[in-house]
Amino acid sequence: MIAVRSLAGKKVALFGLGGSGLATARALAAGDAYVIAWDDNPDSVAKAAGEGIGTADLRSIEWSDVAALVLSPGVPLTHPKPHWTVDLARAAGVEIIGDVELFARERRALCPDAPFIAITGTNGKSTTTALIAHIIAASGRDCQMGGNIGRAVLTLDVSAKDRFHVVECSSYQIDLAPSLDPTAGLLLNLSPDHLDRHGSMEHYASIKARLVEKSDTAIVGVDDPHSQKIAEQLVGSGRKVVRISKRKALVDGLFADGTQLYRASGGEREHVASLDGITTLRGEHNAQNALGAVAACHAVGLNLDEIRAGLASFPGLAHRMEPVARRGRVLFVNDSKATNSDAAAPALSSFERIYWIAGGLPKEGGIEPLRGYFPRVARAYLIGEAAPAFAATLGETVPFEISGTLQAAVDHAAADSSADESPESVVLLSPACASFDQFRNFEVRGDAYRAAVLALPGAEPIGGKN
């Protein structure tokens, strides 16, 4: 745990006592801050009080002597309207920050040269974060990964000269981290998301841009107009910028040509790495993830041999295009994290012959946006509440059955795909739906898929998660 000493001896209000909020309260208390914590959930307040953390309704405290309001990232800062704690803090002139900001301050105080990579983007940030951390750890270095993935950032070990921190940052976390200054900041891409919390695409993009604005090296994907504009603005302000592109050759930067990754300078290209045969990094979207990882790891001192070795041994991110098993010519892939059509598109674009398991609790728009991938689907197996609506969308375009349950879908897809004479067919769980009609969360759904696949006769597990 990182004891937050930058607020030692000061009164700190904290709102939000979920996992990261409680971890932040502990870190502040360990650093000798005087913490007053609160949450709308009485059970969370009781848990914090049981650990000796000071609690009080923040409506009743005296704000004039509060040094900071530490807000959990899930609590609205601006839209659709500021949380009541935000109004109270602003009225008293109290700064409003989050756990990533506290981490950044402690790093500057303890070891400002400690290597720190921060990653954001609308899509792909979790895979890229996991990939960067894997490459660094596989090289034999001390690597700590957390933030919006895995562990809360203040539960990681303290910054040190030879300790690498790899932190995924959501837009909510960046909005609460005004002095975020990583060694390498990576912005993968931008598309409309969380606009209910940010008000407009322009505001959302401006928040994401903060992650790279103070980076020693700013790494920016330039395949969308918003990110391209941010890269141009950074160059104009004199920042060191590395552009990456999954679609076009760059004069300067890193780009992909199919599965081959190149680095260009002044129009001269150098081959960096190949993604051929790396099952966990299939698809155009993973080419972008890999480019970001290459650039970030190079920026913090890894050499190309170390980076290539890490790419080749990457086990993948659980529930995100996760190869589970092979059974003859059939590959079974767990993409349970694809909880809407946009999230399902990368997996559907990555395989040519798909036995697709889809459905669950439907999201707005259904699977109509995925129609361009329907020719890749040999047969669909529909589950959960969305099954009738998905069946109507598929119509006569794609053969389908309403399987009802995930177990039935796996059994039927395995039987059908085993008769397929294609060089490789894929049984793909990519639901394009939330899980809550049949499972507690997408992780439980993915675990159920994995278990059902591994129970099939002749299934040969892939990777280390099985």
Description:
Helix content is 34%, strand content 22%. The protein has 15 helices and 20 strands. The longest helix has 16 residues. The protein has three domains: 87 residues, 3-Layer(aba) Sandwich (Rossmann fold), CATH 3.40.50.720; 210 residues, Mur-like, catalytic domain (UDP-N-acetylmuramoyl-L-alanine:D-glutamate ligase), CATH 3.40.1190.10; 133 residues, Alpha-Beta Complex (Protein-Tyrosine Phosphatase, Chain A), CATH 3.90.190. Helix 5 crosses helix 11, helix 8 crosses helix 9 and helix 14 crosses helix 15. The protein has a nine-stranded mixed beta sheet with strand order 6-7-5-8-9-10-11-12-13, sandwiched between helices. A seven-stranded mixed beta sheet has the order 18-17-16-19-15-14-20, with helices on both faces. With 466 residues, it is of the alpha/beta class.
